[in-house]
Amino acid sequence: MRIANWNVNSARTRVTRMTDFLHRHDIDVCLVQETKCTDAQFPYDAFPDYEIAHLGFNQWNGVAILSRIGLTDVETAFPGQPGFHKDPTKPQEIEARAISALCNGVRVWSLYVPNGREIADPHYDYKLRWLHALANHVSHTTGPLVLGGDFNIAPLDAHVWSPAAFVGLTHVTEPERQAFDRLLEAGLTVTSPFTGFSYWDYKGARFDRGEGMLIDFQLARDITATNSLIDVKERAGKGASDHAPVIVDYAL
């Protein structure tokens, strides 16, 4: 079973790149983040070989699962998943950040973890609460499980191009890293590459300068990974997403 996760930064903008990627790497299941469209706007017809589950409410966020090996029992949130609104007096509605399904007997989750924005921003607290609820849910589940997506956390200093450049910023703080570790304490293992980078900001020619971050991962339990890679060449292409796809092979 070959599973990919990819923050595509707009499915409609990059639909051709997505179809080419799925064919080029012979992907069985693709966990997609930041589709930036509603359910009605997702380009389903571009993927005739795949069953698709998509969750999107507007032009922000959006997650999807594309599977050619079965897709059943879809869930569009995990228990306890918090919502968000920048105005604390308004309803804190669930965002389109998590979707799961059973694919060939494996429960897979496509996850777009909140960014956090700034340490003093309410979005940062939302991010930590979101991750805590996810870890709590995972700790109470059984069976083969794969979480894949944009975690918006660099677990180690080696996962950012310059630790000094991130002092006082999100993605590298100790509470965020502890939240990532809680997922591992729930029995998950990082099965995707734990070296290299998966994201390069469009600004400042970061990709050409090698100034990236590793924030896209797959975590799994009760299933064995046999190989993994980050398709950095996909990030190099014209009109690419700012994230590179992550690919992991699993033995069933």
UniProtKB/TrEMBL annotation:
Residues the UniProt record annotates as site (Transition state stabilizer): N152
Keywords: Hydrolase, Magnesium, Manganese, Metal-binding
PROSITE patterns in the record: AP_NUCLEASE_F1_4
Pfam families tied to this protein: Exo_endo_phos
Matching InterPro entries: AP_endonuc_1, Endo/exonu/phosph_ase_sf, Endo/exonuclease/phosphatase, ExoIII-like
EC number: 3.1.11.2
Keyword Phosphoprotein listed: no
Residues of the active site: Y112, D150 (proton donor/acceptor), H243 (proton acceptor)
Ranges of residues in domain Endonuclease/exonuclease/phosphatase: 5-243
Swiss-Prot/TrEMBL site (Important for catalytic activity) positions: D216
Positions of the record's site feature: Interaction with DNA substrate: H243
Superkingdom to which the source organism belongs: Bacteria
UniProt cofactor note: Probably binds two magnesium or manganese ions per subunit.
GO molecular function: double-stranded DNA 3'-5' DNA exonuclease activity; metal ion binding
Positions that bind Mg(2+): N7, E34, D150, N152, D242, H243
One record GO biological process: DNA repair
Required cofactor(s): Mg(2+); Mn(2+)
Database matches in Gene3D superfamilies: Endonuclease/exonuclease/phosphatase
Family, per entry: Belongs to the DNA repair enzymes AP/ExoA family.
Protein name per Swiss-Prot or TrEMBL: Exodeoxyribonuclease III Xth
Organism in which the protein naturally occurs: Corynebacterium mustelae
